[in-house]
C-alpha cells in the first residue's frame, strides 16, 4: 500500500483511501423524501472511498466502518459519528467536508457534492441503519446560545481614575505584540509592551495610563469576571515568571503570585478572584491561592510548554493547552482532570470560554478553531479559519468569536461558527486579537508591534494604539500644546457666554417689568370694579332708606296740619310754638329726603364713571399680557442662547480641566 496516500486522524485514525469518484445520480422529489440509511446509501460511499483501510481485517487507527456496529464503536480515540443530528460535531463529517485536517480523501479533492449531501442528510436524519430504523429525537445544538447576565458589576463599569504615566522603557518601535485584553464591561483595552502595559480608552483610543511590569514582558492579559482587575502573566525567558494582579481604577498592583524559573505564557483568575492559574515552559499547570500566594495544585499532565490557561466564567473548570496540541480541562476546586481533548494536530495557542461556561474555544497551529461542549465532552464545531496557524481566539458576550492568524488576517465569526467579517490584513502575522465589551470594536496586533483598533461596522477605518507609548516628557509637551490651543478656543467662548448672560439678565428684567405692569393693570381694573360695586351698593342702600323717610315725612306733615288746625284764630304762644316745632321737624325731614336722593343719584353717577374707567383699564390688560408673552419668549430664547454658550464653554473648560489633570500627572512622572 502506498503510505503516502494515507493520513491517520488522531488516535482513532480515521483514514480514507483515494479512489475514482463516482457521481451519484440526481435524486428526484420522491427519492429526497425517502430515508437515508447506512445500508442503502452510506455503505456504498464508504466502499468506494474508505473500506480498503477501515475494515474488520485492517482497522487503521482502530477504526472499522464496514459495518454499522463497527462504525458506531468508533476508533481508538472514540466515536466519529453521533445520533444527535448534528453534522458539525461529527469527526467523520469534519474531515470529509474539509472542515478540519487531515482532509479526506488524502491528497484528493472533496468527494462528490452529491455524496457529501447524502452523508450530511444521513447524520442529520439520526444515522439510521436501515429502512426499519427510527431516529431519536434531535438534540438541541450546543451552539445555540443565550448570553447570561451574571458577572456584570452593579453601577458604572470600572474605569481608571488615576493611573501611572511614566513609561518604564522608551523604544523607537514596539516589539511583537504578545498580549491584548479587553474589559468585559467597560470601554477599556490593555496592550502589553516591554516592562509595561498600556491602557487605552476603547472608544476614543486615548492613552489612559501605563502599568509597570518590571519583571519583563506580559505574555497574557485577562480581565477579571467583573472587570475590576487585570491579570498579567509574563516575565523574562529562562529567568522569571509571575502573574500580577492590578486594580483597574488606581493601577495599583494588588497581588503577585508565582515564582517560576521561566516565563509565564498565560495566567487567569477564577470568578471570585480567589485563585490564579498559570502555565509556561515548565509544562505544569499551577493554581495558587490569590490571597496569600499559596500553591494549591501542581498539575503535570502536559508534555510540552503550556501556551494558554483560562478559568470558565463560573469558576467551576479551568482549561490549559500546550505546544504539542494538548488541551486539558480540570476541575478548578479539586485539580482533578475533567476532560482530555485530543483533536488538534498542532500547537494550541489560545483558548477562550463562552459566557455560559458550556463551550470552550481553542485556536491551533493546525489552522482550526474548535468549539468543545463541556457536557458531551467533544468538539461540536471545527472552524477551518484559513490562512495557516490560528494565533488567538476570543468570545464576546454574544457568543461571537474573533480570531487572529498567521496570514495577517483577523476574522469575526457568529455564534454558530460562520464567518461574518474579515478585517484588512496587517503587515505581518496577526498575533493577538480581542473584541470590546459591546462587540462594536475589534483590537488586534501583529509581529511588527502594530496595534489597530477598528469598528466592526467599518473595518477599513482603524486607529493605531502604541504598545510603546512616547515618554512622559514628550507627552507633556503635547499636552501643553493642547492646553494652549484650548485656552485660545476658550477665550471667545467665555466672552460669548458673558454676553449671553447679560442678554439673559436684560430679558429677565424686561419680563419682570412687563409682568409688574400687567399685574398693575389687572389690579386697577379690579379696584375700579370694586369701587363701582360699592357705589351701586351705596345707591341701593340710600334708595332703600327713602320709603321710610317719606313715610315719616308724611306723618310729620299730618302732624303740622293738625297743629295748624288746632291753633285756629287764637293767638296762643304755646300753640304757635308747637306748630313752629312741627313745621321745623317737617322741614328737616324733607331736607334729609332731598339730600338722600341727591346722594343716591351721585353714587349712581360715580358708579357709571367707575364702570367706564374699568372698561378703559381692562382694554390695557391684553396689550400688557401680549408684552409679557413677548418678554417670556425673549427670555426663553436668551436662556437657550445662554445654555448653548455655557455648554460650549463648559465642554472646552472640562477638556481644559482634563488636560490640566494630565499635565500634572505627566509633570509628576517627568520629575
From TrEMBL:
Q: Write out the coiled-coil annotation as residue ranges.
A: 497-524
Q: Which InterPro entries match?
A: Cyt_c-like_dom_sf (IPR036909), Cyt_c_Planctomycete-type (IPR011429), Quinoprotein_ADH-like_sf (IPR011047), WD-F-box_domain-protein (IPR050995), WD40/YVTN_repeat-like_dom_sf (IPR015943), WD40_repeat_CS (IPR019775), WD40_rpt (IPR001680)
Which regions are annotated as WD repeats? 299-340, 341-382
UniProt protein name? WD domain, G-beta repeat
Query: Which Gene3D superfamilies does the UniProt record give?
Result: YVTN repeat-like/Quinoprotein amine dehydrogenase
Task: Name the source's superkingdom.
Answer: Bacteria
Under Gene Ontology molecular function, one entry of this record is: electron transfer activity
SMART domains under this entry? WD40 (SM00320)
Give the residue range of the signal peptide.
1-24
Question: Which segments constitute the Cytochrome C Planctomycete-type domain?
Answer: 50-107
Organism in which the protein naturally occurs: Allorhodopirellula heiligendammensis
* Keywords associated with the record: Coiled coil, Repeat, Signal, WD repeat
The cross-references to Pfam families, in alphabetical order and at most eight, read:
PSCyt1, WD40
Disordered: region residues: 649-671
Cross-referenced PANTHER family: SPERM-ASSOCIATED ANTIGEN 16 PROTEIN (PTHR14604:SF3), WD40 REPEAT PF20 (PTHR14604)
What SUPFAM superfamilies is this protein classified in? Cytochrome c, Quinoprotein alcohol dehydrogenase-like
Amino acid at each position: 500500500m502506498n503510505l503516502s496516500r494515507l493520513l491517520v486522524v488522531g488516535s482513532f485514525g480515521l483514514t480514507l483511501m483515494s479512489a475514482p469518484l463516482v457521481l451519484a445520480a440526481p435524486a428526484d422529489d420522491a427519492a429526497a423524501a425517502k430515508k437515508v440509511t447506512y445500508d442503502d446509501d452510506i455503505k456504498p460511499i464508504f466502499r468506494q472511498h474508505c473500506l480498503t483501510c477501515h475494515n474488520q481485517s485492517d482497522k487503521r487507527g482502530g477504526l472499522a466502518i464496514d459495518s454499522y456496529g463497527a462504525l458506531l464503536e468508533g476508533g481508538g480515540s472514540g466515536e466519529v459519528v453521533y445520533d444527535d443530528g448534528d453534522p458539525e460535531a461529527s469527526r467523520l463529517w469534519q474531515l470529509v467536508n474539509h472542515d478540519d485536517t487531515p482532509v479526506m480523501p488524502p491528497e484528493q479533492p472533496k468527494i462528490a457534492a452529491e455524496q457529501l449531501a447524502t452523508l450530511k442528510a444521513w447524520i442529520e436524519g439520526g444515522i439510521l441503519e436501515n429502512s426499519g430504523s427510527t431516529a431519536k429525537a434531535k438534540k438541541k445544538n450546543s451552539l445555540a446560545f443565550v448570553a447570561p447576565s451574571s458577572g456584570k458589576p452593579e453601577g458604572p463599569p470600572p474605569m481608571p481614575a488615576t493611573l501611572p504615566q511614566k513609561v518604564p522603557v522608551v523604544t523607537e518601535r514596539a516589539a511583537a505584540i504578545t498580549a491584548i485584553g479587553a474589559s468585559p464591561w467597560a470601554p477599556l483595552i490593555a496592550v502589553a509592551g516591554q516592562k509595561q502595559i498600556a491602557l487605552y480608552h476603547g472608544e476614543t483610543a486615548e492613552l489612559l495610563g501605563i502599568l509597570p511590569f518590571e519583571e519583563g514582558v506580559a505574555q497574557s492579559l485577562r480581565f477579571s469576571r467583573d472587570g475590576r482587575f487585570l491579570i498579567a502573566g509574563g516575565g523574562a525567558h529562562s529567568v522569571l515568571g509571575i502573574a500580577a494582579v492590578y486594580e483597574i481604577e488606581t493601577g495599583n498592583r494588588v497581588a503577585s503570585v508565582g515564582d517560576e524559573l521561566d516565563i509565564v505564557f498565560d495566567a487567569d483568575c477564577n470568578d471570585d478572584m480567589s485563585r490564579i492559574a498559570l502555565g509556561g515552559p515548565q509544562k505544569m499547570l499551577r493554581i495558587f491561592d490569590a490571597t496569600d500566594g499559596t500553591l494549591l495544585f501542581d498539575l503535570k499532565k502536559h508534555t510540552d510548554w503550556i501556551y494558554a490557561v483560562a478559568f470558565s466564567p463560573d469558576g467551576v473548570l479551568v482549561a490549559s493547552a500546550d505546544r504539542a496540541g494538548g488541551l486539558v480541562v480540570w476541575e478548578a476546586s479539586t485539580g482533578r482532570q475533567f476532560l482530555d481533548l485530543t483533536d488538534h494536530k498542532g500547537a494550541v495557542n489560545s483558548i477562550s470560554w463562552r459566557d455560559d461556561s458550556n463551550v470552550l474555544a481553542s485556536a491551533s497551529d493546525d489552522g482550526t478553531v474548535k468549539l468543545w461542549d463541556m457536557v458531551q465532552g467533544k468538539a461540536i464545531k471545527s472552524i477551518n479559519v484559513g490562512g495557516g496557524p490560528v494565533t488567538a481566539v476570543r468570545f464576546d458576550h454574544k457568543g461571537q468569536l474573533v480570531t487572529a492568524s498567521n496570514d495577517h488576517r483577523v476574522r469575526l465569526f457568529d455564534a454558530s461558527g460562520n464567518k461574518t467579517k474579515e478585517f484588512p490584513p496587517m503587515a505581518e502575522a496577526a498575533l493577538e486579537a480581542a473584541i470590546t465589551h459591546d462587540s462594536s470594536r475589534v483590537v488586534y496586533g501583529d509581529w511588527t508591534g502594530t496595534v489597530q483598533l477598528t469598528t466592526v461596522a467599518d473595518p477599513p477605518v482603524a486607529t493605531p494604539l502604541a504598545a510603546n507609548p512616547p515618554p512622559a516628557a514628550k507627552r507633556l509637551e503635547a499636552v501643553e500644546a493642547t492646553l494652549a490651543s484650548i485656552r485660545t478656543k476658550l477665550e471667545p467662548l467665555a466672552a460669548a457666554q458673558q454676553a449671553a448672560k447679560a442678554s439673559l439678565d436684560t430679558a429677565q428684567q424686561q419680563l419682570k417689568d412687563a409682568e409688574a405692569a400687567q399685574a398693575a393693570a389687572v389690579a386697577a381694573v379690579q379696584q375700579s370694579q370694586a369701587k363701582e360695586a360699592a357705589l351701586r351698593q351705596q345707591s341701593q342702600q340710600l334708595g332703600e332708606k327713602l320709603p321710610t323717610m317719606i313715610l315719616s315725612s308724611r306723618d310729620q306733615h299730618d302732624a303740622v296740619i293738625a297743629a295748624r288746625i288746632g291753633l285756629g284764630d287764637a293767638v296762643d304762644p304755646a300753640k304757635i310754638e308747637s306748630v313752629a316745632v312741627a313745621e321745623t321737624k317737617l322741614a328737616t325731614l324733607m331736607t334729609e329726603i332731598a339730600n338722600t336722593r341727591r346722594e343716591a343719584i351721585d353714587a349712581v353717577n360715580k358708579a357709571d364713571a367707575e364702570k367706564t374707567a374699568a372698561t378703559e383699564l381692562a382694554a390695557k390688560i391684553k396689550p400688557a399680557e401680549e408684552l409679557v408673552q413677548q418678554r417670556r419668549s425673549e427670555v426663553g430664547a436668551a436662556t437657550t442662547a445662554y445654555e448653548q454658550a455655557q455648554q460650549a464653554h463648559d465642554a472646552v473648560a472640562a477638556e481644559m480641566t482634563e488636560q490640566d489633570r494630565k499635565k500634572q500627572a505627566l509633570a509628576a512622572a517627568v520629575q
